[in-house]
Amino acid sequence: MVAGDRLVLWLMFCMVGAYCAHNWYWFIRSIIFYSRNGFDFSEDFGPEAYWADRGGDDDCVLMKPKEKFLIAGPVFVVVTSVMLIFIVLGLMGII
Q1: pTM of this prediction?
Q2: 86 phi, psi to nearest 5 deg
Q3: What total of structural domains would you count in the chain?
Q4: Is there a domain that residue 59 lies in?
Q5: Does a structural domain hold residue 34?
Q6: HEC profile of 13-64
Q7: pLDDT per position in the chain (95 positions), as tens?
Q8: Is 44 among the domain residues?
Q9: Beta bridge partners of 50
């Protein structure tokens, strides 16, 4: 492996690793928060999440708390974790 490739993998490791840790942190905090209040999704918790940006200024569709907890949180955690696994495997020289 060329030294430049390894540098790119280390940069990706730092960036994706930080984003993965951020997603795990907020997902675990959400689990703790909603389990303590009896999974009452009337109260929002954590960073805002949007379904889509439709190109306009105010056309963003904000996710409801239940959607953030059941859809966005697990998807972001799984996707960033899988990306990080492949980056680590690349750094180890396995792939």
Answers
A1: 0.81
A2: -65, -35
A3: 1
A4: yes
A5: no
A6: HHHHHHHHHHHHHHHHHHHHHHHHCCCCCCCCCCCCCECCCCCCCCCCCECC
A7: 677 778 889 999 999 999 999 999 999 999 999 999 998 888 888 888 887 766 555 666 788 889 889 998 999 999 999 999 999 999 888 88
A8: no
A9: 62
